[in-house]
Design a protein that fits this description.
- About 5% of the residues lie in helices and about 45% in strands.
- The protein folds into 2 domains: about 40-365, YVTN repeat-like/Quinoprotein amine dehydrogenase (Methylamine Dehydrogenase, Chain H, 7 Propeller), CATH 2.130.10; about 370-430, no CATH class.
- It is mainly beta.
- It has a 5-stranded antiparallel sheet, with no helix packed on it. Strands 11, 12, 13, 14 and 15 form a 5-stranded antiparallel sheet that branches. Strands 7-8-9-10 form a 4-stranded antiparallel sheet, with no helix packed on it.
- The protein contains 2 helices and 38 strands.
- Mean pLDDT is about 85; it is low at about 1-30.
Amino acid sequence: MKKIIGVIIAAACAIVLFGGGPGAAERPDQAGAWTSLGPYGGEIVGLARNSKSPAELYAVSYSYPSQIWRSANSGTSWTRQSIVLQRICDVAADPLTPGTIYLISYGYLHVSTDKGKNFTTCRLPAGFSADYGRIAVHPSNPKIIIISGAFYYDNVNYKTDIAVVRTTNGGATWTLKRFPCSADFGYGYDVVFAKSNPNYVYMCGFDQKNSVDVARVYVSKDAGSSWKSIAAPAIFNGNCPAAYAIQVDAHDPKKAWVSHYNGIARTTNAGSTWKAQQTPQITNVTSIAADASNAKILYAGGKLNDALSSLKSTDGGITWKVTGNGLYGKSCRILAAGSKVHFATVAGIFLSKNGGSTWNPGHSGIRGAKIKAFAVSPSSPNTIYTGVYGYALFKTINGGSAWTTCGAFYGSLLVGSVAVHPANPKTLYVKPNG
């Protein structure tokens, strides 16, 4: 009951601040009463590129309400297009029509035909949740859309099956496919069409029974009408097995890579057999993507000594090397085209201009950071400290006009609270979250 009341209060506050009802979108200048002070960044869960205009990117923040961001210069700077009173989980760009984008939230599909300024909304099938899921748009027929997620078969005990929903008419009607495995709960994380042959569709996730996790991977050879389980326990099992993301070869629909908790797995025959790929010291690989201009170059994001690190392969995903530094947070999405690579994480968007050798923040203009701590200096009200989830402790001395990161320390990426000494403002007390 407390959780339900909290959701109602949060929704009410969002309506007061931003106006409208569920699914409503507003222009940034209509938000009115509040001005964002930053710092730049945000918990970015979705990142998409306009296929007809590669410099045009879209990003969404996992917040309530969610913010929709657009870049017209390959991520050099971003502007907020709108606010949607839903918790958005992913964004996809229409492969044929520039300016048309698709969003998914817990139980809705949102479609914009004006570059994310306004949206129409349609309800997904009852019981289905797209939370943690992804959206896949057919490469040559955008009326066919598949969304991964979960089906709640026992709402009282929060029990779910891995599931996908599919429309062939742009969202007018949907079909639901459940993947029951007698599990206590399961989630579908990623779903991807093969560009060279869209009849091939891959989906991955995990389920759990009696605290035992099992990685799941499925393939469809009829554009999502029917599915077959293709996961190989010997490859995916290990510590906390779960399959997070999929990349399909641009030229061969039977060749695919799946990033999972224990590394990266590769198949060349649509899942009949799998090979574990060399991922040195990297675990919890939550994202993977191929270079749009060279299918043999792939990137992935995972954990190295409990910090986000990038992986790169130049031989079609057979061998991998750790590359670059400067990344923060958990990797959610990757876009790569030539020397430019974008990493979307829970701390923002990071950009490499040299193929992953070095990384820098690429979220100038995005002010949607997930703030976990906040304190104002008693003797200097313009001096403010704030902890950004998955990033660092930030400081401003001019009331938010400019921010700098404070020095790194144990737990600095998960600052839970911060306090300034009332008599000595140079003395700070910080409690890591967890």
